[in-house]
Write a structure and sequence with these properties.
β2 (about 50-55), α2 and β3 (about 75-80) form a beta-alpha-beta unit. By secondary structure, this protein is α/β, with parallel strands linked by helices. It has two domains: about 20-230, Spore Coat Polysaccharide Biosynthesis Protein SpsA, Chain A (Alpha-Beta Complex); about 235-325. The protein has twelve helices and nine strands. The relative contact order is 0.11. The model is unreliable at about 1-15 (pLDDT under 50).
Length: about 325
Amino acid sequence: MSQHTNISTGRLTREPLQGLVSIVIASYGRPELVKRAIDSALSQSYPHIEVIVADDLAADHCHAEVQGVKDPRFRFHLQDGRVGCWQNWTTAIRMARGEFIVFLGDDDWLSPTFVEDHLVALAKVINAEVSFCSMHEILEDTSTLRTIDPGVPILNEVSATDFLSAALRHELFFGAALFRAGMAMEVWEETKPDDYVADYGLILRLAVLRSVPCTRVSGPVYFKSVHPGQLSQKYTEVTQLRLGLLLRIRDLIPDGKRRRMVSHFAAHEAILLARHHAAAGDLQTARRQLAAALQISPSTAHAWSQFLQSYLTPSRLARTARTQRGLPA
């Protein structure tokens, strides 16, 4: 992997930092979606960019459509086979040559000033390794499902502890961000065990293991497409992966405030996993998960409440879980 230099300025300015920005896209043979992502990247108001697509065994028609992009800032890599989510992202990242990096899903897209506004933020907050912005979840009919705003102050240096707190609350999304490439690429190599939740693993590792500050900008928007084929729609699987990630991160932290924070949120992830099992009618597995939550963080009163409820009024737990999933009670 090539070396990257962090570029910063010692003065406050409304001008963006100057440097090449690598927008990396991991794709999975979805030509009707990836072309939109590519177009949004190449249409950025900030001109010094490169766009890299690594496709996981694309179908011929997808290959042809992507290869039809003639912009010299664009590069395309076709994998030799099904290499998996993490390796596909990693291929694109290792091809990157920029001082900054943006992670763009093949079914998502960027607002036109996304890169420029983030570079302005990093020019002001010179110690921040990453700048976050809002994410809009867009349904297939183009309506907005919800907006997730970063839970950190705008254009201020946010401490590593507050960075971690916002990450644990799922208020930060790695696509809705611009990273200084050096550290982000270094930390990405550590996320291989996280697999499908490596995006979340990158943010947690930056906050808790590297202890770097972040910032937030108000202007740009990351548009995230919401559709049935996404992993995020597989509630039980994703929650299980997140729980495993949190436990791995916790075990790397010495005793202290941050370890307690991660343990607390891991316990709540275990509670959420229990609710998903309850929603599916598997109360026995739900109870085991609640017991695991108590072992992770015995001081979590909510875990004790849910554990007792699962024995005293199991039907109520199942109803609550199904309602939270938007299913008939």
